[in-house]
């Protein structure tokens, strides 16, 4: 992770294509939804791909998001009192979010890999997962969705 140098040749071309799929407008919509869903306590990221990645990287915001989609008393992800600082704990928190999202109904093909977020390999995949989760929440119409229903497709 820390020793990864710059990409060259075909690797750079592939990474460049992946990065072009990232949508800044979609990021704004997702941030608005996450804040509406979880409350102002989650804060807001700095604008841009890197700010969004740093905001979600420790898994706490994602865990609060998925927990907010469940009724009180049945929260699928345990959130530690202090945000995890160790890398493997942060990755474990992201993995718990991914498991909970899949259990909620997000199709496995719409779910990103932990490294996509943690190392910012494919932030567009992270956006796809959050879009799928939001769309499911709107479609379920169980009273746990907060925000504008027009932000997501049913």
Automatic annotation (TrEMBL):
Concerning Gene3D superfamilies, the annotation shows: Calponin-like domain
User: Residue ranges of the Calponin-homology (CH) domain?
Assistant: 24-137
Query: Superkingdom, according to UniProt?
Result: Eukaryota
Matching entries from InterPro entries are given as: Calponin-like, CH_dom, CH_dom_sf, SM22_calponin
Family that this chain belongs to:
Belongs to the calponin family.
Q: Fetch the PANTHER family from UniProt.
A: CALPONIN, TRANSGELIN
According to UniProt, the name of this protein is TAGL protein
User: What is the gene name?
Assistant: Tagln
């Amino acid at each position: 992770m820390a020793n990864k140098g710059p990409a060259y040749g075909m690797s750079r071309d592939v990474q460049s294509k992946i990065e072009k799929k990232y949508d800044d407008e979609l990021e704004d919509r997702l941030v608005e939804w996450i804040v509406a869903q979880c409350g102002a306590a989650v804060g807001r990221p700095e604008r841009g791909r890197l700010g969004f990645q740093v905001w979600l990287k420790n898994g706490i915001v994602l865990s609060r998001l998925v927990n907010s989609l469940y009724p009180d008393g049945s929260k699928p992800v345990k959130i530690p009192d202090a945000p995890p600082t160790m890398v493997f704990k942060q990755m474990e928190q992201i993995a718990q979010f991914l498991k909970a999202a899949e259990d909620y109904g997000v199709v496995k093909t719409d779910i990103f890999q932990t490294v996509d977020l943690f190392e910012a390999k494919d932030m567009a995949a992270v956006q796809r997962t959050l879009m799928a989760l939001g769309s499911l929440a709107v479609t379920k119409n169980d009273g746990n969705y907060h925000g504008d229903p027009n932000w997501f497709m049913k």
